[in-house]
Amino acid sequence: MREKISIQPGLEAFRWIPDVYLFIKDRDRRFVYFSANFPALLDRTARELIGARDEDISPEHLVEHYRSDDNAVLTSGIELTSIVELVSEPGGGYAWNITSKWPIHDRSSGEIVAVGGVTRRLQQHRDSEDRYLMLQPAAELMVKNLGRNVSLAELAASVSLSPSQFSRVFQDRFGVTPHQYLRRLRMDAAADLLTSTDLSLKEIAHECGYYDQSHMSNDFRKAKHMPPGAYRERYRTTIRPV
Questions:
Q1: What is the DSSP string of 80-124?
Q2: 155, 168 Cβ separation under 8 angstroms
Q3: CA distance 200 to 103
Q4: Which pLDDT tens digit goes with each residue over 220-242?
Q5: Which is higher by pLDDT, 242 or 76?
């Protein structure tokens, strides 16, 4: 597969752009090329990453989003630009990244043979400040307070907007309502705790802001198509800890 993928010499320029990370995956979503700084972003060596898939190095609740975007590019040939993602950091915690992906075609047949991507920390992406960074305080308020119900008025006040203005701007930027985004954050946090800790379902529900264990289980079944216990058993962390 590697010989089918055309890599322009200009991609070497990524060596001099330390805050931008390049990666290329083949049709099986295995990493076949990446910039020299990319392994450190994932706290892996280049040897560990070549031929690896997201499933080998990241928890399932993050892989779900990566896999969905990759498959959309590989099957339809669309370009995905400025995807705002909440990603885990090697030292623990989360950070905001902005990612773009595009199809890579075989030079002779024109067939899509790979997906290329670039990612960088959101706060370092100056062209995106007006579009996303104005909402970062509200998004971080959600992340840091998953265990309680943050009101729409509180979120709006964090970015100096009225509730109606905030709802409109947030949906325009992120493609979902604030409530839908918060539900996704809670679900991702629950999935993370299920696969990386021994906390009980009741404790996880409390940590992630659900009314009770039953509420979390019902939401989990709808989103993941399996109960939390089955998800934990299936995706219990087996990757090398960072």
A1: EEEEEEEEE-TTSSEEEEEEEEEEEE-TTT--EEEEEEEEEEGGG
A2: no
A3: 42
A4: 999 888 999 998 888 875 544 44
A5: 76
